[in-house]
Design a protein that fits this description.
alpha+beta; 29% strand
Amino acid sequence: MLLAALIGALRKQRRQSARVTALTNLAGQLGGTVHTGPEAARPRAATLTARQPEVVAGRVWGMTRYESALDFQRGRWPVRVAEGSRRESRPSWNATDSPGMVDIRSHVVEIPTPSCPRLHFLPVRQNGLSLQISRQLDRPPIASPVPADVWASAPIPEAYRGVVQVSTSNAEFATAVLNDQLLQWIAAHAQWFTDPVQLEYGLLYTESNGAADPASLLPRVDFLVGLLERIPHHAWQYRH
């Protein structure tokens, strides 16, 4: 067992080293900077999605430990891509499976914005179910440490209801943000809109499972930047 643990630790160390190398190579292309370690690499979004370890359906969900982050500038917007992993204890579902701890990698892409109310964009599947709803079937919702808001669904023109659902804590802010140009942008770039996007407390961010893929990272970042660029200036008058 000790040997297996040592082998597992070495494999994890090699994987992390490879991820830092990949981010460093990308930083060289973008003129960015790589940070390592749980404190230096932690995204601001982690303070909004803090989660205590909990047990749901026999599975232990842990907090993400961020290991590396890439900071770079995209146009006038500073971007951080933070990667990390969390430990999950999964139960045995049949006689051939054995319960144990599993490392689940994830990454966050975040862009600071002016202070604002909360607005969540949820991608919609072709069958009409949002990805967020489907995920809640096997993962508990994130428990935010910030005060609870009164949430409401924002009205979406029929032409875009098969692409995005929007919930908000401020209906006036949602009305100001959700102009036709912005909705057209989301619909035209739906292939990069695969995870919920959250705009709140001066931050736009999205979290995805797996390590950041250099081949798809920049198109996803440009999707988020394009979304921000299409928010009218007067919308930022609404404060959290």
